[in-house]
Every structure is written in C-alpha cells, then in structure tokens.
Design goal:
The chain is mostly helical. The chain has 5 helices and no strands. Helix content is 54%, strand content 0%. It is extended and about 50 Å long.
Length: 101
C-alpha cells in the first residue's frame, strides 16, 4: 500500500478517532488528587518525568521506589510528568532526526 494512499489515510484517521474516543472515558481517582501543602505539583511532576527511566529501574529492585507520586495535584502534576518524559527525556523526536553529512 503506497504511503499516500486514501486507504492508509483513512486508517490513520480511524485509529486516531478511536484513541480519542477511548481516552474520553479515562478519569482520575479522587483519592489520587490532593490540594494540601507539600503535595507534588507541576515542578515535581517535571522532575519525576525526567528521572522516570532511573526510577523505573530502581522500582524493579526496591518496592519503596515509585515512578509516579500519588497523591498529587492532578492535571498540573500530569502535565509536568508528561513534559519531563517527552521534552527533557528527549522523547522520540531526537532519535527520529537523521544526521546529514
């Protein structure tokens, strides 16, 4: 199937719509969100996202290590965690660039 065929484009759009539809059902547990002082927010989420690979390896050997803080401040912690993994961690963008020369 050619890369620019209408059937391929339709499959990509259908997969994206299915992903959006399924993600609309997601919700956060109320016990996982807190607004008390000292509860991890955006900056802790950013840090936890950045150190995720090392925290995950540590969690395999020690049950006291977690890769995600619960409870946290909710959406802002999630956003920081996402940015930490994708932007600070490099995400897939850096590996997708071809070196020319």
């Amino acid at each position: 199937m050619p890369a620019n065929s209408p059937a391929r484009s339709a499959r990509i759009v259908a997969a994206a719509l299915l992903a959006v539809l399924l993600s609309a059902c997601a919700s956060q547990v109320d016990a996982g969100v807190a607004d008390e002082a000292g509860t991890p927010g955006f900056w802790w989420g950013l840090w936890h996202g950045f150190v995720f690979p090392w925290a995950w390896i540590g969690s395999l050997f020690d049950s006291e290590i977690a890769v995600y803080a619960v409870p946290n401040r909710g959406g802002w912690y999630d956003f920081g965690f996402f940015l930490g993994i994708t932007v600070l961690g490099g995400g897939s963008w850096f590996s997708s660039k071809q070196r020319s020369g």
